[in-house]
Amino acid sequence: MTPLDIRNWVVRRYKNGKLISRTSVGRFDASLPEEKQLHMTPQLVTWKQGLIPKGRCSESCLPGTRKVLREGYHICCYDCIPCAEGEFTNHSDSQNCRRCPEDEWPNERRNKCYVREQEYFSYETDVLALVFSIFSVLLSLITVFMLGIFTIFWKSPIVRANNRTLSFILLSSLMFSLLCVFLFIGRPVDMTCMLRQTFFGIFFTVVVSSVLAKTIIE
Q1: Which of 27, 79, 184, 217 is least buried, going by the fewest C-beta atoms within 10 A?
Q2: Would the pTM of this model clear 0.85, i.e. be above it?
């Protein structure tokens, strides 16, 4: 097969016409070994407006995203996928995102991590914390008062007819459910974080079960 010359055609326009120039920038010879068939001299190539095209079909992925290859396309074709929640990347064209340290969280662009802000109910800054505490104490005192009445008249016919054991369980669980409010107020620590959901779930479940049991029995 006859070797082929690779030429760069350049058209320059002037006031009195245009000039076309041809420059040999490479050569292709199929008779040579595969790795030597194509020979190019990039320095001789003149691109339009001096811009050299990029050898990719996708734009560069910005920090905060990662590259995912498009199935069925060339390796230079990919999509830019935002990092998952809790992950970040601070450089372009990243293959994988990194997870932030345990006490940090990524920003909206997910290109860096910052220390997490602790938000919680506080008696010093939140009026609702004080309101909830007052209501919890008042309602708990009412429940304790009712428990005292049931205890004093434990053997009376009215208390016995009202299923005294079930009523005692209902009032006790209701009182502890109301007091669980204090586990949700103040700076959270490991102990309160473990107890707040567990205690409230248990006592509230007992309250609902006792009300349903009293409805069925009566």
Answers
A1: 217
A2: no
